[in-house]
Write a structure and sequence with these properties.
It is found in: Cytoplasm. This is cysteine-S-conjugate beta-lyase. The protein has 395 residues and is α/β, with parallel strands linked by helices. It folds into 2 domains: 250 residues, 3-Layer(aba) Sandwich (Aspartate Aminotransferase, domain 2), CATH 3.40.640.10; 139 residues, Aspartate Aminotransferase, domain 1 (Alpha-Beta Complex). It contains 14 helices and 12 strands. Helix 4 packs parallel to helix 9 and helix 12 packs antiparallel against helix 14. The structure holds pyridoxal-5'-phosphate. Pyridoxal-5'-phosphate binds next to helix 5.
């Protein structure tokens, strides 16, 4: 597709064969697909992996439209759908490892990804080595004869380190590894994973694709080399999604560009404001030089969004709690990517279990915010009031 990104997001997945003449592909709910003749049934069986109605678990036109859309957005050969981002991560890994294999996992991965490696993969006889998100070329030292897979997440969860994905992918491919990336932060649009050497780009579509905090959904877009195995093994693992949720994923795509731009504008304004607050040690926003890997963000990313962290000078949980309880526009919640602002706090000792080798050893509390689509002045006023309460408790 040669269209600009905005045009693409409006038009993908809207072929007439999926929309049946209206603007959006209708929700086609189905378990059973029925055939009137033996020839019809045989033809469906032959074409069942090629966007042809066969059986509900293989998808309906609503699913095919979303798969089409995501594969085009991320420039892949195909897109597998999962009931959540975690299912996309675990199924993509399980589709390519066997007992005796070894995988390389970035130390700043999403917490359930780590727990999956340390429990389920370990029990299956697959060993995980964690590496620093800033390792660069030295990744080669961790590659063994039985290493199968390199798993990246950029920026890293909570601490936001941006990775040198092209360098890591290049070295991994020299050793015939599969490269997977949790590309949730960039929503598949602000970092073109497959162009930078990633084989499978995974997203918690729960976040920005859906964009309204009301659906769990996962996607994995694979290149030509790995698409068939990803598709078939995920199918064997029983991974499928309701047509209603696929529909809402498609709806989210239409406003993805404009939402991301506004999130990014608001979050950069607030990140800059935070740098001048006396309580703040440093801000971890990929668009600011104080974020590890900022140079890779500048080189590789097309835009930002609403999610970033900042680290306070001290850790004093009572004051942190007062800060959090004072906020009116920021709710506490374990997610992000919706239209609303959210906040979570991590005390320094929490990183002892979240990191194996890249513990940043912060002295102060880390606050992660998701900046929503509210007016940025209201959010700054809210944060100002929360800092006042924070200082009252601290004094
Ligand atoms: C939320 C999230 C996930 C998991 O997505 P779910 O849909 O909640 O399972 C995976 N990776 C990242 C980076 C996330 O933020």
């Amino acid at each position: 597709m040669s269209e600009h990104n905005k045009t693409k997001l409006v038009s993908v997945g809207r072929k007439r064969k999926w929309t049946h003449g209206v603007v959006n592909p209708p929700v086609q709910r189905a378990s059973t697909v029925v055939f009137n003749t033996v020839a019809e049934k045989q033809s469906a069986a032959i074409n069942r992996t090629n966007q042809t109605l066969f059986y509900g678990r293989r998808g309906t036109h609503t699913h095919f439209a979303l798969q089409d859309a995501m594969a085009q957005i991320e420039n892949g050969a195909g897109c597998a759908l999962y009931p959540c981002g975690t299912a996309a991560i675990t199924s993509a890994i399980l589709s390519f490892v066997k007992s005796g294999d070894h995988i390389l996992m970035v130390d700043t991965c999403y917490e359930p990804t780590r727990d999956f490696c340390n429990n389920i993969l370990k029990n299956l006889g697959v060993e995980t080595t964690y590496f620093s998100p800033t390792i660069g070329q030295d990744i080669e030292q961790h590659i063994r004869p039985n290493t199968r897979l390199l798993f990246l997440e950029s920026p890293g969860s909570i601490t936001m380190e941006v990775q040198d994905v092209p360098t890591l992918s290049k070295i991994a491919h020299q050793h015939d590894l599969i490269v997977m990336l949790d590309n949730t932060w960039a929503a598949g649009v602000n970092f073109e994973a497959l162009k930078y050497g990633v084989d499978i780009s995974i997203q918690a579509a729960t976040k920005y694709i859906v964009g309204h905090s009301d659906v769990m959904l996962g996607t994995a877009v694979a290149n030509e080399k790995y698409w068939e195995q990803l598709r078939e093994h995920s199918y064997l693992l029983g991974q499928c999604v309701s047509a209603d949720d696929a529909y809402l994923g498609l709806r989210g795509i239409r406003t993805l560009d404009i939402r991301l731009r506004q999130h990014a504008e608001n979050s950069l304004t607030i990140a800059n404001w935070l740098t001048s607050r006396p309580e703040v040690d440093h801000v971890r926003h990929p668009e600011l030089p104080s974020c590890p890997g900022h140079e890779f963000f500048k080189r590789d990313f097309k835009g930002g969004n609403g999610l970033f962290s900042f680290v306070l000078k001290t850790s004093y949980p009572k004051a942190t709690n007062a800060f959090l309880d004072t906020l009116q526009h920021f709710s506490m919640g374990y997610s992000w990517g919706g239209f609303e602002s959210l906040v979570l706090a991590n005390e320094p000792k929490s990183f002892n279990s979240l990191r194996t080798i890249a513990n940043p050893n912060f002295k102060g509390t880390l606050i992660r915010v998701h900046i929503g689509l509210e007016d940025v002045d209201d959010l700054i006023a809210d944060l100002t009031a929360a800092f006042e309460k924070y200082n009252e408790v601290l004094d």
